[in-house]
Amino acid sequence: MPDKTLKATPTRRRSFGDKVRADMYLTRLDWHLEAVLPGKERRATVKELRQTLASDPRDTTTSLRDLGAPRLLAEQYAGDARRRPLWSIGVITAGAALLIYWTVFLSYVFGMLAAVESLGSTEARATFLTIEVSAYSTTEAIGISWTSDWAWLILPTIIAALAFFLGARIWRAITPSAKSS
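RE: above sequence
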């Protein structure tokens, strides 16, 4: 009598490129879902879709093409859900704003130091957005410094907070969205 036990079908091994492509798709989908689903539901949706993609016998390119654009798929999951703030985009925006601020500030400070060295002066003082900056160059040492009570800390905090609020679209948390007919 032949053995009639059910055997699990082996799952197809995906290439590294296919895994990266699927992960990038799911990351973009997760970002779009953040605007319409709470965290727990969003993670469950992405996890379920990841498992579905892994067990799909078709190649990854076909599977992803059939799912459509991540933004459109997220809108299908949303239905009539109220739009939510995009917290991760807010964090990325705040980080980018801080990076730009510190790049500009340090360029200004090191530019002052270069000017002091090229002019043969020993010290220069200036103000950058309420922050007192000084650069000095002597035969024994070179250096930069900045002081301004709390302004050196408050200014980047304000820049990061504004960038976060704009990037996350924080007003979505307090205003109802218009329902489309």
